[in-house]
What we know:
Layout: H1 20-27, E1 31-38, E2 44-46, E3 54-65, E4 75-81, H2 83-92, E5 98-106, E6 115-123, H3 129-138, E7 143-146, E8 150-155, E9 160-167, E10 170-177, H4 184-196, H5 198-220, H6 231-237, E11 239-245, E12 250-256, E13 266-271, E14 275-280
Parallel strand pairs: 4-6, 10-11
Antiparallel strand pairs: 1-3, 1-5, 2-3, 3-4, 5-6, 7-8, 8-9, 9-10, 11-12, 12-13, 13-14
Amino acid sequence: MADKRTETNDLPDETSAVPVHLLEKFNASPVVDIVGVVNALGAGGGQSRGETWWTLRFRLVRWKRQDGAVQRSELLVQQFLDGEALRKAMNALTEYRVVALRVRLAAEDASGSPKALLLKILDRDSPDVEMRREAEELQRPVTLHDDYFGELLLDRRFNDFTVTKDWRGKPVDLSLSMGDCQDTAAFLRLARELWEAQDHWHTRITEFAVAQLLPLKNDNWLDEDEEEVSPKEFADRMELTSISLNPDGSFTFWHNDGDLFWGHCIQISGSMEGGPTDADIPG
C-alpha cells in the first residue's frame, strides 16, 4: 500500500514560481512545520491571464506549530504550481482534512491575518489528536431556531444560515449571510418581512427581469426558428429557486431560466429599500 506521504514531493522548490514581491516577503519569514484543519471550502486554484503558473490557495481554520497552542485565526496558505501539481495538491487538501505542512510563515499583515507559503505537504492525514478533535467539532451541525422559519442550518463554507420554505406554493432555499450580522434577531425579522411580502416581491422581481432581459433574449438568444418570446411567456418560464439576503437588506433572487438563456441562471439583485437594481444571466 502506498504511503500517504508519497504525494508530498509534487510541489516545486520554494522559489521556482513565486512572484518576486511575494518571494521577498516570504524569504524573511521562518520555515516552520505546522498542523491544521483545512476549512470547509477545501483548496482552490486559479490562473491570471498571461500567467504560466497556477495559484493554489486554501485556509486552515484551526492550526498550530508542532507542539504549539491552537490558533483560531484563519491562516491563508498559498503556492504557485503547474497544472498537474495543482491538481494533486487540491486532492490532498480537501475540506476538514487534518494536514501537516512545512511553510514559510509570515507575520500578520495589514489586515491582521497571518499568511504562509507552502513548501511541502508533510502528511495529508495527520494523526494529531488535538487537531482531529478540532476537525470533529467543526463538522458538528449548528442550527438556529426561529418561530417563523423553523430550524436554520449553518453552511460553514459561506457562513450562511439556510432553510427551505414555501414561496408562493413552491419550496425555495433561503440563505442568510451572517458575515456582517450584528443582531441576529433583527436579521430574522427582516427575512420574515421579505417572506410575508412575497407576492409584492414576486411582482417587482419578475417585472424587472422582463424589462431588463427580454430584449436580450429576443435580440441575441433565440434558437433557430424560435419565435420571439412574449413578456408573459418570459415570466412564466422563470422559476425561483433561492434567495440570498444580507443584514443590510440587500438581496439576490436566483431563478432557473426555463431554457430562455440555454441553461444560464437568471439573477436579480437589489435591496428591500431600493427594490431590484441589477439583472444578470451568470453560469
